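This part of the workshop introduces the protein records we will be handling. As an example, a complete record with its sequence and its C-alpha cells follows.
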Amino acid sequence: MGAESMERIGLRRKPKQERSIQRLDLILAAAAQIIAKKGVSAMRMTELAIAAKVPIGSVYQYFPEKAAIVKALFDQHASAIQTKTAAMFSDVQSLDQALDLVCDIIDWYYDSYHDDPVYLGVWMGTETDQDLLRLNIEHSGRVAGIFHDAVRRLAPDLCDEEMFARTYLFSHLIGAVIRLAAISEETVARRMLGEWKRVIRASLFTEAAPRAA
C-alpha cells in the first residue's frame, strides 16, 4: 500500500503515555459501539467524539478521517485471526491434519464472529473503500502465507506458484463465506460451511492440470 494511502487511513500519531493510550482506546471502543448499531457509513466524527467523551480535536489528533478508524478496528480483528492461524499451524504433522485444521479454523472463525455486529460492520466498511479493500486483501495474503509455509515444511514439492495462488484464493474466500454465513439463518449457515469445507478437502491439495504448450 502506498504512502499516500497509508497517510489517509493510518494513525496520525501513536500514543505513548498511558493517558493518551486510554483516550485512543475510548475512541475505538465508542466507534465499535456506533458501528455495531448503525454501520460505518452512518458514523460521524462529531458523534464519535461525544460518545467517547473526548474533544473532537482528540479524534482528529489520531485519525485523519473515518476510514482510519475502520482500519484500526479491522487491524484488531485481522491480528487475532492471523495469530490464531499461526498458532494452529505451528506444529502441523501431515497434509490430512492441515486440512482438518483449515476446517477447524472455519468453525472457529464462524463461532467467534457470526454474532459480532462490530466485525460485520467493519468488514462492510472495507468493501466500500478502495484502500481498506486492499488492506483486507493483504490480510488474506498473510493468512495464506502462514498456511503455505506450514505446508512447505511437510511437502515442499507441492508448494509451487499454483498452490500459492489456490491458497491465496481460498484464504480470501473463507472470509467471504464466513461473512455470508454470519448474516444467514443458523441452519443454512452451518450447511454452507459444511459445503465449503467439503470443497476445500476435495480441491486444496489437488495437483494443477498441465498447462497447454
